[in-house]
Amino acid sequence: MDDHADPPDDAEPPDPLVGRLLNDRYQVLARVGEGGMGYVYKARQEPIGRLVALKVLLQEVAENEQAVRRFLNEARIISQLRHPNTVSLIDFGHLEGTGQLFIAMEFLAGGQLRDLLDRGRIDPVAALRMTRQICQSLAEAHAKGIYHRDLKPENVLLDDVEGEQFVVKVVDFGIAKLNPALAGLEAGPLSIQLTAPGTRLGTPAYIPPEQAFGKAIDGRTDLYALGVLLYEMLTGHLPFKSDSEQGLFLEHLHTPPRPISEAAPDLAIDPAIERLTLQMLEKKPDDRPPSADAVIRTIDQILMRLAPPTEGPTPQGPVTLERARMVDAPTDDTPVTIQRSGPPGWFWAVLAVGLLAILAVAILR
Ligand SMILES: Nc1ncnc2c1ncn2[C@@H]1O[C@H](COP(=O)(O)OP(=O)(O)O)[C@@H](O)[C@H]1O
Ligand SMILES: [Mg+2]
After folding, report:
1. Eight-class DSSP state of 213
2. Closest alpha carbon to 270 in 260, 280, 279, 262
3. What pTM did the predictor assign?
4. C-alpha angle with apex 267: 265 to 271, nearest 5 degrees?
5. Could you give the domains of the chain?
6. Number of DSSP helices (H) and strands (E) in the chain, helices first
7. Is 153 exposed, middle or buried (0-12, 13-18, 19+ CB in 10 A)?
8. Neighbours of 45 (CB within 10 A)
C-alpha cells in the first residue's frame, strides 16, 4: 500500500475484514451488502475454494441483546430450511479475534431481484416463475411454522446457475418469526419477542396491513408482501405510494391497489394473472389465497396456458434470462435486454444438418 496516498476526507475507511483470513478458513474477498446490524462479505472457504457469503454482526451492536437475538434467530431458522429456493446455511459462530457473530451461507452470485427491477419491469411468464420459486421457499417455511415477514426485492437473490438459467433464493430471515409450537421446538430464549414492545418490523412499501398494525400474522401475511413484489415485477411500479410511512400504512390498510390493466395498460395483462396478484393483495388475510401451495397451483394453471411445457408434464420451466428480460423500462422507451450469449455452436450445426436432411428427402421424393 502507498502510505503517501491519503484517501479523500469523504472516502469510507477500508473495511478491516476485507483481505483477511478469518477463523483459518474464510478468505474475505469483498463486502457485498450492508444492513443496520452488520455487513455481508463474499469470501472463499479454504482449502476447498467454495464461495460463501459471511454475514457478520457489527461490533457496535455486539452488546445489543435484541440484535444478538435476531442474529441467532436467523441462523437457527435457516438451519432448519432445506428447500433449494431458500439460502442454505454453512456455518455459524464467532470470529476469532474480534468475537463478532457470523453466519456463513452459500454465496449467490446473481445479485438482488432489486437490480433486475431497477432496469424495468419483468416479462409476466418470468415474473410468475420467480413468484412460484419464492412460494416454494415459503411453503416449506410455513409448514415449519416460520414466517419471513420481510419479503422484498432486496431479500430475493438470484443464483447464477450455468449461463442463462437461474433460480431465485429467499434470504434474510433476520426478523422471521418462528412459532415454537408448530416448529416442534421447546419455547426457549430464541422464541422471545424479537422486537421491543411498540416497535414495528418490516419494510413500509411491502408491509402487510396486519403486520403494520401489530395484529396476528400467518403464512398469508408473507403472501401479501409477495403480492406487492409480483405487482412490482409486472408493472414496474409499487401498488401503493406515499410521501410518509404513516401514509403508506394507511394505503395498505384502506386503499385498493390500482388494477394492473390501468397501471400498465400497454402490457395487456392476462386477466388470470391480474386476479391472482390482486387476490394476494387483499386487505383481509381470509380473502387472500389460503397458502403458498394454493398460489403455486394457480400459477401452474396460468403457465400451462401461457407457456405450455415443450417436454415433461409440468409447466414450471426454469427461469431463463431470455424470459426474464425486461419488456420495457419505466423511465425509458428503449427496451432493456440482459446481455446473453446465443445458443452454442453445436446447436446451429445440428439444426443445419437436420434442415438439409429434410430438404434432401423432399427433393428425392
Ligand atoms: N448468500 C448471499 N449471497 C450473496 N449476497 C448476499 C447473500 N446474503 C446476503 N447478500 C447480500 O447482502 C445484502 C444484505 O443481506 P441480508 O441478509 O438481506 O441482510 P440485512 O438484514 O442487512 O438486510 C443482500 O440484500 C444481498 O445483496
Ligand atoms: Mg435484507
Report:
1. T
2. 260
3. 0.83
4. 85
5. 15-107 (3.30.200.20), 108-184+199-309 (1.10.510.10)
6. 11, 13
7. buried
8. 17
Please tell me if the CB atom of residue 32 comes closer than 6 angstroms to any atom of ligand 1.
yes
Ligand 1 mean position, distance from CA 156 (Å): 9
- Name the 3-class secondary structure at 177: strand
* Interatomic CA distance for residues 138 and 17, integer angstroms: 33
Look up residue 216 and give its three cell numbers.
396476528
Nearest to 295 by CA among 316, 309, 317: 316
Using DSSP's 3-state secondary structure scheme, residue 140 falls into helix
166-179 pLDDT, tens digit per residue, is 799 999 988 887 66
How far does residue 156's CA lie from ligand 2's centre (Å)?
9
Question: How far apart, in whole angstroms, are the C-alpha atoms of residue 157 and residue 287?
Answer: 29
Give which of 191, 183, 180, 169 is closest to 88, Cα–Cα.
169
Give dist(CA 59, CA 21) in Å, integer. 18
Sheet with 38-45, edge to edge strand ranges:
21-22, 26-34, 38-45, 50-57, 101-106, 89-94
141 C-alpha vs ligand 1 centroid, how far in Å?
19
Rounded CA-CA distance 152/209 in Å is 15
The response to whether residue 178 sits with its C-beta less than 6 Å from ligand 1 reads no
DSSP string, 231-264: HHHHHSS-S---SSHHHHHHHHHHPPPPPHHHHS
Angle at 238 between CA 237 and CA 242, to 5 degrees: 120
Atom of ligand 1 nearest to the CA of 106: 1
Mind telling me the catalytic residues? 150
Buried b (16+ CB within 10 A) or exposed e, 66-104: ebebbbbbbbbbbebbebebbbebbebeebeeeebbbbb
Buried b / exposed e over 273-294, threshold 16 CB at 10 Å, is bbebbbbbbbbebeebbebbbb
Q: Which ligand is nearest to the CA of 114?
A: 1
Sequence letter at residue 1 = M
Q: Closest-lying ligand to the alpha carbon of 73?
A: 1
The pLDDT tens digits for 308-360 are: 887 666 666 667 655 555 555 443 332 223 333 445 556 666 677 777 777 77
Among 57, 11, 12, which residue's Cα sits nearest to residue 35?
A: 57
CB 281 within 8 A of CB 231: yes
